[in-house]
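Shipment paperwork, digital attachment
Item: protein structure file
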Amino acid sequence: MKRKKALPLLLSMSILGAFALAGCGGKEAATGATGDKADAVNPDAYNNEPVTLTFYSHNASVLNNAELDALVTNAIKTKYPNITPQLITGTNLDKLIAAGEVPDVILTSNYYFHDLIQWGLTSDLNNFIKQEKIDFGKFEPESIKVMRSFSDKGELLGVPYALSQGMMLYNKDIFDKFGVPYPKDGMTWTETIELARKVTRMDAGTQYIGLDMGQPTTLSRQYGLPVIDEKGEKAVLQTDAYKKIYGLYEKLYSIPGIVEPKKKYTYGIDFFLKDQKLAMFPYWLTPTTARLPQLKETGKDFNWDVVSLPTFEDKPGIGREVDFHLAVVTPTSKNKKAAYAVIKTMVGEEAQRAMNRGTRLTILNDPALKKETAMDTKLYEGKNLQGIFKVKPGPLPKSNKYDLKIYPFLNEAAKNMAYDGKDVNTVLREAEEKANKWLQENK
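Attachment content:
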């Protein structure tokens, strides 16, 4: 804890030093951003000088040069041949900050964005957005709403470039085996659990699992539930909404065969794709797309399909919470102009179309583009891929930097229900007590 608190201070000192060296040049840039000549001269425009632009992926699934090429290099190589993107791997942000080797651009997700804020790795991009006339009205609206919520000062600390979409995978072979109708678009979670009951069976010594809803955050985030109050002081886990969520898990765990006592109560994407004993599994489009080529390579492909993510009766048409990847320009970068040029290109229509036809979903709120999703991969030929867009991303409450610390208590509550048969009220009370104790000891 002490080291992480020291890192932003170290970085802030570097930033102040950079401002001091900039001298009057910094003042001119600030004046140019708001003065009369702002539209005529853009002080942040890239001047085509050769530059190596460093990138780091903080849980953004850019793990190698091939993935960086697909996302960045191929998009900019014609327009900006003098920019050479370079991916930093084999280390972590703590070490990079301590060594004074902070990358120019960090790619991350809204789920992990608070990490970058705490480490002092973000900068305000409002001037860049204004000068380059980037129209956020064309973006998925919930993504911009979430980005704005990260600052109380009106700052825009990152630019979304790729969206993920929740969906439900299902194994047609299991439904065919037991003569049960397939799931459909537009089902509720209650209906889905009842359908799972019909395909959770033991057959010839093999236990088939009807549904894995994942950890409770799958449903609580979809419902838009915070884990901490607006003041950030105490956990709020004993609400009627949380009781509703855990009531669904209680119904699921009550199905004979769903829980393997003391061994397994959640199963995951690999159990669905590799073991092929799980009938239904809610997941995300992007990581599914990344895994499907491996499935084909193993020769163990099977008859599967997708439908829209199940919803709540009182929130029809609302799927999984908005989830997206975004780009951050670090405050100490010496190549901000090149970074801005790259980000502008990444969110442009041409780059978005190419990305969307590949392995990542466009951030643009364009129905025509979504009809082309993953088309070039041919992974969803004959599948109901367009059905997943019948629900829209759900809104999120304002996030808190302690959210990720509280989630394990929610997971433990579900485990106690599954293994020990504890009731909803008991597990939520225990989870809230543990969460509040953690907050008191660590804030």
